[in-house]
Amino acid sequence: MTATQDFVHVFEPATVPGAPTLLLLHGTGADEHDLLPLGRALAPGAALLSPRGRVTENGMNRWFRRLREGVFDVDDVVRRSAELAEFVTAAARDYDLDPDRIVVSGFSNGANTGAALLLLHPSLLSGAALFAAGAPLQGREPDPVDLSGVKVFVGAGVADPITTIDQARLLADQLGARGADVETREHPGGHRLAPDVLADARAWFDRSLF
């Protein structure tokens, strides 16, 4: 079995020549089909690579274990991020994708995992659009990696009870301190992807010219 086959996933080739690849990471309880509409809305014409998380919590798909609500098993975050990075690298080879033009987008648990990929595997991605994301290593200070040239959009709800706005702001600060070009869009709601935030993310993606 190759690393690409290690993850159940969906791959949709680009419909626009030269378009980048969007890596889609679903939230808790969803699967590899959940964010395909988001991918098409965020980056029309891009290739879509959408795997399924391999951790199960009470029958729900996740990307990494948590000790309880809001408390991550950070060692598992590190291990599972390495497995996912290996999958992405193999998929880029197997599907003939440009490895320098892969952008991750995720919601909630998937967005936390996308953030972990940026901080733990800084050469893997050229950008990220993260919704309802927080600092994935929680109490650990990330290594001083170089994220220069990486563009990141962070969408966060100030009333989010699951991923608090403080965690979202901490993530933005961590990424910015490591050289990433971070654009943050806060909305007054909770744990959701607000339509106006998606519209802003789409405009950001267009400006970023991945």
UniProtKB/TrEMBL annotation:
Keywords annotated in UniProt: Hydrolase, Signal
Keyword Signal in record: yes
MF (Gene Ontology): hydrolase activity
Name of the protein this chain belongs to: Alpha/beta hydrolase
Keyword Hydrolase part of the UniProt annotation: yes
Phospholipase/carboxylesterase/thioesterase domain: residues covered: 15-203
